[in-house]
C-alpha cells in the first residue's frame, strides 16, 4: 500500500468527528494528508474557527515533515524553541508543532499519511485523531 484510499481517509474523518460529538468537544476541523503532504479529505464542522483548516493542515504536514507525531514535535518545541522557530520560517509557516497531528501507519509500519485535528484542546484533538485512525484498522503514531 502506498497511501490511504479516499474511502479510508473519509472514514477516518467521519469516525473522528462522530467521536468528538460523543465527547462533547468544540467544533473541529480535520485534515487527512497523503504521504506527500497533499490533502485527501478536509472537513470543517459548523462553528469551527476560520483558521482551523490551516491549523489542522499544519499539524498533519508537520508530522510528515518531521517524521514523527505531533506529541513528539510538541515535546521538542518545548525543549528547543529556537529550532522550532527556525523550522516555522524554513517551512514558510506550514508546520505546527502540537498534539493533534498523527502519522498514519499500516500494521507493518509503512507510512500511509497523516491526520491533523484542530478546534479543541490539543490532547482532545489528538484523541479523536487516534480514534479515527484506529477505527479503520490502522496505526496512529502520535510520537
Gist?
The chain is α+β, with helices and mostly antiparallel strands and 143 residues long.
Mean pLDDT: 94
Structural class: alpha+beta
Number of helices: 5
* N- and C-termini, Cα separation: 22 Å
Kindly provide the radius of gyration, computed on alpha-carbon positions and rounded to a whole number of angstroms. 14 Å
Spatially, the strands of the biggest sheet line up as 2-1-4-3-5
> Major sheet, described briefly?
5 strands, antiparallel
User: How many E-type strands?
Assistant: 5
List the uncertain runs.
none
Protein described:
The protein has 143 residues and is an alpha+beta fold. The protein is built from five helices and five strands; from the N terminus they run H-E-E-H-H-H-E-E-H-E. It has helices at 6-23, 52-66, 70-79, 81-90, 122-135; strands at residues 29-33, 39-44, 101-105, 111-118, 139-141. A five-stranded antiparallel sheet has the order 2-1-4-3-5. The longest helix is centred in the N-terminal third of the chain and has 18 residues, at 6-23. The radius of gyration is 14 Å and the shape is globular. It starts with 5 loop residues before the first helix and ends with a strand.
Amino acid at each position: 500500500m502506498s497511501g490511504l484510499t479516499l474511502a479510508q481517509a473519509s472514514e477516518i474523518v467521519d469516525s473522528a468527528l462522530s467521536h468528538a460529538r460523543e465527547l462533547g468537544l468544540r467544533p473541529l476541523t480535520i485534515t487527512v494528508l497523503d504521504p506527500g503532504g497533499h490533502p485527501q479529505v478536509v472537513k470543517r464542522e459548523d462553528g469551527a474557527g476560520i483558521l482551523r483548516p490551516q491549523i489542522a493542515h499544519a499539524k498533519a504536514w508537520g508530522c510528515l515533515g518531521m517524521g514523527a507525531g505531533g506529541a513528539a514535535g510538541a515535546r521538542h518545541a518545548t525543549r528547543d524553541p529556537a529550532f522550532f522557530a527556525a523550522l516555522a520560517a524554513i517551512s514558510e509557516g506550514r508546520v505546527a508543532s502540537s498534539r493533534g497531528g498523527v502519522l498514519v501507519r499500516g500494521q507493518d509500519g509503512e507510512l500511509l499519511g497523516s491526520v491533523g485535528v484542530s478546534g479543541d484542546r490539543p490532547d482532545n484533538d489528538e484523541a479523536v485523531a487516534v480514534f479515527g485512525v484506529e477505527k479503520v484498522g490502522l496505526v496512529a503514531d502520535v510520537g
